[in-house]
Amino acid sequence: MEWRDEAIVLGVRRHGETSVIAELMTREHGRHLGLVRGGRSRAMQPVLQAGNSVDALWRARIEEHLGLYAIEAIRLRTSELMGSSQALHGLALVGALLRLLPEREPHQGLFEMAALIVDRLHESDIVPGLMVRFELAVLTELGFGLDLSECASTGSTQDLVYVSPKSGRSVSRTAGDPYRDRMLPLPSFLLMEEPNEPVAMAAVRDGFRLTGYFLERDIFSPRGSPMPDARAAYVAGLNG
């Protein structure tokens, strides 16, 4: 068995004296682990830092084996990220969300979004909105997507400003106002197709409140896991 793919490094763990097991998010093969012989060498340590883009060649005798990685750098981002705690929290959050995915299951859309985010982590006016969209996409890929296409009560596609915490469907202002205290906010930027526009921080925080509710209810709580510390740190940093 052999394949080659572009990947983002999520992390490594030591294996023996000189090797590591690398966890990568690959474009075509999903989240995939493999052994890197000599991964703790001076040459490889800078390459295997979280957030770097690499070219990964994976080989194994049979598909079920851990397999061996041969890895070459495509883009090293460590020096760009080290000066910003917010960027590091964002990188850790991306990794925590990708680790929710089953291993070896392709999610090319999430790979593309993750690559865009790690490329732009220093763009404080763009990335927070992208991160909210990324959380929505993770929910969708795991089978818990929200339906923001029309009002759950009236079928209207106009003036959608709420999301029902029960159904995960959008609700119009007219239908939702009598129950506003029970509703979650739906920031308007999530209804727009263009993801690369700056988003006001108040709207971003509303977006994280929305995605956080469903991530905790549908993903983390059923698994008996807490929400990632990196998420709380990243959201707190938006107030800075």
Descriptive account of the structure:
This protein is α+β, with helices and mostly antiparallel strands. It has two domains: 2-76, Nucleic acid-binding proteins (OB fold (Dihydrolipoamide Acetyltransferase, E2P)), CATH 2.40.50.140; 80-148 and 186-237, no CATH class. The protein has seven helices and eight strands; from the N terminus they run βββββααααββαβαα. The longest helix has 23 residues, at 201-223.
As for the number of domains, it is 2
Q: Catalogue the unreliable spans.
A: none
Give me the secondary-structure category: alpha+beta
Strand order of the largest sheet: 3-2-1-4-5
Key structural traits:
alpha+beta, OB fold (Dihydrolipoamide Acetyltransferase, E2P), five-stranded antiparallel beta sheet, three-stranded antiparallel beta sheet, 7 helices, 22% strand
